[in-house]
Structure formats: structure tokens, C-alpha cells
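Task card 7
Instruction: Convert sequence to C-alpha cells.
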Amino acid sequence: MIGEFEFLTYFPKDQQGLFIVYELYTFDNFFRLLMQHECSYHDEALEYMIANCSLSAVVFQKRKHNNKYRLLDAKDAISPFEASINAKLKADLLACADM
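Output:
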């Protein structure tokens, strides 16, 4: 099964310790990085994300419910650092909007 990946230490987490994945771009990058590192199957990466991520309803519907996650390919992943910075920036913007 999946161990802890170094790139995951930079992704933002919520108060329960789940990775914040509230929009499609972050989902796609996170998923591709999992596929690139250790997940051999799309379903294995999806199971990891469901267990360890806080997903928005839009992300859940557009990727999981419609099975669009099966179209994502690991070779299209951006660098882990860029993905984590992008996710952190979006999480910070969402946090500012809640104020």
C-alpha cells in the first residue's frame, strides 16, 4: 500500500488533518502525483484520496461520480513542489474568503 510521500508534507491540511482538495485542478495534480509515485491503479489512488482528503462536492461529482478520474494520466503531472504551492495558495485564498 501507499507510504507517506515527501511531497505530501507541503500540501495544505484542514483541522482534521485531511488534505484540502476543493477544486478540480488540485484534485487532478494530487491524483497524478499519486499515480506517478506508487499507485499502480486508478482505483488505488482514488481510495487513498477518499480516505485522506477533504473533497468538495464539485470535485467528488466531476471526478469520482462521473468516473473522470480514470482519464487522468501520471505522465501529465506537474512537479510536486509546484502542485503543493498551488494547492496552498488556493487553500489560503479560500480561508481569506471565509473571514
